[in-house]
Amino acid sequence: MSEPGERPATIEDVAKLAGVSIATVSRALRSPEKVAESTRKKVTAAIARTGYTANAMAQNLRMQRSQMVLVLASSIADPNFAGILTGLEKAANDRGYGVLIGNTEGTTGLEQNYLRFLSTGMADGLVLLTGHIPVAGQPQTPLTNLPPIVATERPVSNPEISYVGVDDVAASKVATEYLISLGHRRITFISGGPADIRSDLRHSGYLQGLKESPEALRDWRVEGDGSSESGRAAVERLFIKDDLPTAFFCFNDNTAIGVISALQLRGYRVPEDFSVLGFDDIPFANNFTPGLTTIRQPRQHIGEKAMTILLDRLANRSLETQTHLLHGDLIVRESCGGISRKLK
Amino acid sequence: MSEPGERPATIEDVAKLAGVSIATVSRALRSPEKVAESTRKKVTAAIARTGYTANAMAQNLRMQRSQMVLVLASSIADPNFAGILTGLEKAANDRGYGVLIGNTEGTTGLEQNYLRFLSTGMADGLVLLTGHIPVAGQPQTPLTNLPPIVATERPVSNPEISYVGVDDVAASKVATEYLISLGHRRITFISGGPADIRSDLRHSGYLQGLKESPEALRDWRVEGDGSSESGRAAVERLFIKDDLPTAFFCFNDNTAIGVISALQLRGYRVPEDFSVLGFDDIPFANNFTPGLTTIRQPRQHIGEKAMTILLDRLANRSLETQTHLLHGDLIVRESCGGISRKLK
DNA sequence: TCGTCTCATGTAAACGTTTTCATGGATCGT
DNA sequence: ACGATCCATGAAAACGTTTACATGAGACGA
């Protein structure tokens, strides 16, 4: 029943109205079993009449926490971000936590800046989608008393940090084996750039896949950077040498899309002339022509699991860090086919 | 120099070390001009030695604010969301505010839930990407003492709420005129569903465009819902009647993509046989084949402007609400061409 | 009937700030 | 040399909670 111009009701207003002390009101809310049935009713009534909601700032100050988690991403626009955030947000919200987001754009300056949320106590935990521990700007290293951290999307090699993500190696092995099963013997891996650990993981899965083949297949790695432009460029470089694979296993869907359009531009058809396999299963993979055969990242699950691990850790600081790898399904659409006669 | 196991330094620690009162420390930080040069130096030194950072919760409690803004979206996965959020986040961060995100998934239950951030004072303002005022669950209407609100992405018709978005009407008119200038006389508008106000705005822009034509052109509206599936369905329905346009102006890029793939599936070519024009310029529009001709939403600018308006209002509550329409450029790629002879 | 125990409640400290108000010393004009 | 003015500082209240501790009333067994 809070009136327009009024300031919000405090616990004191409720106490006065109910004829009890503020301690009793607090108890009626936090630990109802400690207060007599009769007074609990009076308090409930008073709360309803005043429209009271506890001031979170006061609670948090008193309880030395914030019920907030900071999510640091290098790019909000990353096609995987939305899905992961959805999962993170859901899990957090389910447990009464809020999600604070920070976009570092890959710059350490902004990264630095967001750490203020941690040092001022505005956030209790940290989710990293940046692939590295935020650098400490000051000479002193506050890393030691950083809050619980969990990394997603990009692994961070630090024993203090939990990680949850797709099993890059296993999924890449499956992808490669699939191409081999279609008859391909000349399979290129287009990387995601030297700075990205995931690229190495996927490459090593690709190698494992090659090894499973009856014949000895060539490790054929071409450098890219994860952009569709780099996919196009990779194709152009291959055509210069005139040394051509029959299938492309790409670091991600963006790259695969670049590869496909470069091939199409040269008059080839996918999958008739070349097979192209991606990674991520970005929302658009299904709308692309041809439909992209790819590895699906269970983005929402990844987010949920990551947040769950973090919040568990927040509730019980003695919990150990853990690495959790989720299975990535091979999604078969249209971009891969049997080996072309023409190029065999 | 905060040691690992220690609790963070408080203002009192600093005061003790500097040999002054906590009031002086506070003043040295908030209004340095009020404290003598010499003591200011002592305080600065003490702060450096202790590694002190002010506890945000205590500050906010005292100052009756939170320095946080809640962003409510109906879907994080919406292709426009990331860009707008990037802008929102940037503007907020520039002014020391944090961005709290809430994913309502279109359900009022979750919407309700997120309002707790407002009622508990965890957020000072609200950004709505949902297209409507969050419904009050309780019989009483707390709408009157809602904080400053700004809507983006989807307009909300309420004088208390500012809006910033693309000028749907003007942009749609330009789009339609462009199709007419290419020679098209039979232009379908595929809507975004009855619940979406933007669909009506774009339709009315389309009508204005038609009116500019020398000939009287038919208002040809087909219902869709903004999904690529609905674009496909719309094409199928048209083919049943065998009454065909030469050009499609679609509510959004998703729909346009659905239209194009349905046409291609039937063996037609875009833009040779039909022209298709979208709206939004989603990140993928450029990777699609053919490249999508569309209206670009200046997403990041929209976000920045929206946040700026909100924060200005937060700083000065007497500021008026405002509606700010940004220009949407026509991005010409490959999906529109001259009118096909065959179907003329 | 009297201690003892339990249980519901109240009192007050604490969380870490900002800011009003009071105070005392220095500076200044006369 | 003395009151007025100014300026830097400190003491303490306030923001709205939670919770350890004290208190007092009933219940209960001896």
Automatic annotation (TrEMBL), chains A, B:
Which residues does the UniProt record annotate as the domain HTH lacI-type? 9-63
The keyword Repressor appears for this protein = yes
* Superkingdom in the source lineage: Bacteria
Q: Does the UniProt entry include the keyword DNA damage?
A: no
Which molecular-function annotations from GO does this UniProt entry contain? Answer: DNA-binding transcription factor activity; transcription cis-regulatory region binding
Keywords tagged on the record: DNA-binding, Repressor, Transcription, Transcription regulation
Pfam families in the cross-refs: LacI, Peripla_BP_3
Indicate what this protein is called per its UniProt record.
Putative transcriptional regulator, LacI family protein
What is the native source organism of this protein? Roseibium aggregatum (strain ATCC 25650 / DSM 13394 / JCM 20685 / NBRC 16684 / NCIMB 2208 / IAM 12614 / B1)
